[in-house]
Amino acid sequence: MIYERKPSRIYELSFQTVRSEAQLDRFPPDTAELVVRLIHACGMTDIADDIACTADCVAAGRQALADNAAILCDVEMVASGIIRRGAAARANIVSTISDPQTAAIAERIGNTRSAAAVELWREHLDGSVVAIGNAPTALFHLLELLDQGWPKPAVILAFPVGFIGAAESKAELAANPRGVPFITLNGRRGGSAMASAAVNALSLGLAGDGR
Questions:
Q1: Nearest CA to 69 among 178, 192, 154?
Q2: N or C, which end of the chain has less CB nearby within 10 Å?
Q3: Number of domains making up the chain
Q4: Is there a domain that residue 97 lies in?
Q5: What is the CATH number of the domain that holds 67?
Q6: How far is the C-alpha of 201 from the C-alpha of 155, rounded, in Å?
Q7: What is the pTM of this model?
Q8: What is the pLDDT along the chain (211 residues), one digit of tens a residue?
Q9: Is 122 a member of any domain?
């Protein structure tokens, strides 16, 4: 069978294809490169039409990583997808979903374990990079805690996925980001791979710079 076998060429051609097919003109150049990585992670060039973000999301996220900010992940799959090179090599990558306290917290607050895990982020939250790739309740509860006066992260990378609450949680973020730079994908689509890809874009720089 004839197919491309050289890893560097596969990577190069992948990003060329994304840039040729996706509508990226409405984004600032740095955000466009982040969107390229998101598309590369999911294979759907049309998601560019459904991206909502603040113009400073990339600059805010990169500065936070340069300042050794923590990276807070709603699930371990997001944490596992972060490439430990670039700025992320120095970062404290935090996922509290498996913490033994989450079940009791979930019972106390009447919410999911994913939401309860966010309650354990407080000491890390100020100036952090938040990456949500699975649970709408994690995003909803983060916004509730910000409304209660909790410290603000530097940026929210919001890609919860699913049929119940995903679209609604991201719509709430986009409508009122609580003064926090963000990027999200409107609608039901999302996932851990996209959240990890967003972190990697911030950490490694322009799309195609790192594997």
A1: 154
A2: N
A3: 1
A4: yes
A5: 3.40.50.10230
A6: 13
A7: 0.95
A8: 999 999 999 989 999 999 999 999 999 999 999 999 999 999 999 999 999 999 999 999 999 999 999 999 999 999 999 999 888 888 999 999 999 999 999 999 999 999 999 999 999 999 999 999 999 999 999 999 999 999 999 999 999 999 999 999 999 999 999 999 999 999 999 999 999 999 999 998 744 444 4
A9: yes
Instruction: Give, for 94, the enclosing helix (H) or strand (E).
Output: strand 93-95
- Provide the token pair at 44: 């759907």
Q: What are the tokens at 103? A: 């079940």
Residue among 40, 62, 141, 170 flagged as catalytic = 40
Give catalytic status of residue 124 as yes or no: no
- β partners of residue 130: 72, 156
Type of residue found at 197: A
Residue 2 lies in a domain: no
Range(s) of the domain holding residue 112? 33-204
Query: Would you call 164 helix, strand, or coil by DSSP?
Result: coil
Structural domain contains residue 8:
no
